[in-house]
Amino acid sequence: MVPLVEPIDALTERERLRTARHARLPQLGELGQRRLAAAHVAIVGAGGLGSPLVLALASAGVGTLTVIDDDVVEISNLHRQVIHRLGDVGAPKVASAARVAPELSETRVVPLELRLTPANTAEALRGAHLVIDGSDSFDTRAMVASACEQLGVPLVWGTIQAFDAQVTVFWSAPPAGVAPVVLADLHPPASVGELPSCAQVGVMGALCLQVGSLMALEAIKLITGVGESLLGRVLVIDGLRATQRELRVRPARAAAPPVAPPRVREVGEAALAGARVLDVREPDEVAEGMIPGAQHLPLAALLADPRSAAGDGGQTVVVCRTGPRAHAAAAALQAVGVDAAVLAGGMLAWDAQRQGARA
């Protein structure tokens, strides 16, 4: 593999001594350790998978970890989320990551107490060399995967329920000669139904440590360029039978030529007359004001089920703050047969015209 990260010039003396056993590995060596020290990894979720990831990557000497989670520690987390303690119950999960990592190495932790949305995910992940998804809902996983495809960074992906788990790597822009594989190749959107939560079916805590460790190893291999990654392969783990098997993932794009998405039109304020206006901003945004008569449906809800937002025919004009979210929503509506357009300039332009008229 081609190393993902250029190395720093030198390790500190303490890090050189601390990671001496890594340096003895001929595939990794001191050069690989310097690549790890230069790396910036974003971890989505500080729960069952994120906890061992923080421990493993900080211990490995990764330079920067951005840990993203908006949740607080609950006592029922503690059987599997091993960076948290009884005294952390009620505290933000990212605070545990910020406490634990510096106790292990010189790793810098950027705690990001944030609920990811389609509007902020790419920005939250921007700057990371690699992303690891340890979240626990498919909606979040889809947003993270989409952002990684947009940014062109590799995504280490793992999931666990009960005694079963999967680990793989997605990458929309791998090195030349390597076929890209993305989340939709493994789980086409139409194939994903309502998935049970860990609260409903349970989860074996010890398996979280195994899966998190495997995900950390994939990240280390990608950063340093050693070994063979799981890109194009899914590792399937059966914890009850103590078996692991491998499945190949064939890029769906190889089966048929790509089809260009329909072009989304931008329209002016005059087009609002007689059209259904759909506002896809977040609730806190629409609380500050909406276009009269507009319907509110947050972008994430629309993307999860575009057909339910199709309306009863006629033109739909989608609006957000400035335009990007509206374009994503309109494209999804067009894909299910809706005549959808975007209000040019979004609410900022609409508000500016109102203020100009009052001046």
TrEMBL record:
Q: Mind telling me which GO cellular component terms the entry cites?
A: cytosol
Q: Does the keyword Transmembrane helix apply?
A: no
Where the record annotates domain Rhodanese, the positions are 271-352
| SUPFAM superfamilies for this protein | Activating enzymes of the ubiquitin-like proteins (SSF69572), Rhodanese/Cell cycle control phosphatase (SSF52821)
What is the name of the protein in this document?
Adenylyltransferase and sulfurtransferase
- Which InterPro entries does the annotation name? Rhodanese-like_dom, Rhodanese-like_dom_sf, ThiF/MoeB/HesA, ThiF_NAD_FAD-bd, Ubiquitin-activating_enz
Top-rank taxon: Bacteria
* Organism per entry: Agrococcus baldri
Q: Which Pfam families match?
A: Rhodanese, ThiF
The UniProt keywords, alphabetically, are:
Nucleotidyltransferase, Transferase
UniProt keyword annotation of Transferase present: yes
Query: Any idea which GO molecular function terms this record carries?
Result: nucleotidyltransferase activity; sulfotransferase activity; thiosulfate-cyanide sulfurtransferase activity; ubiquitin-like modifier activating enzyme activity
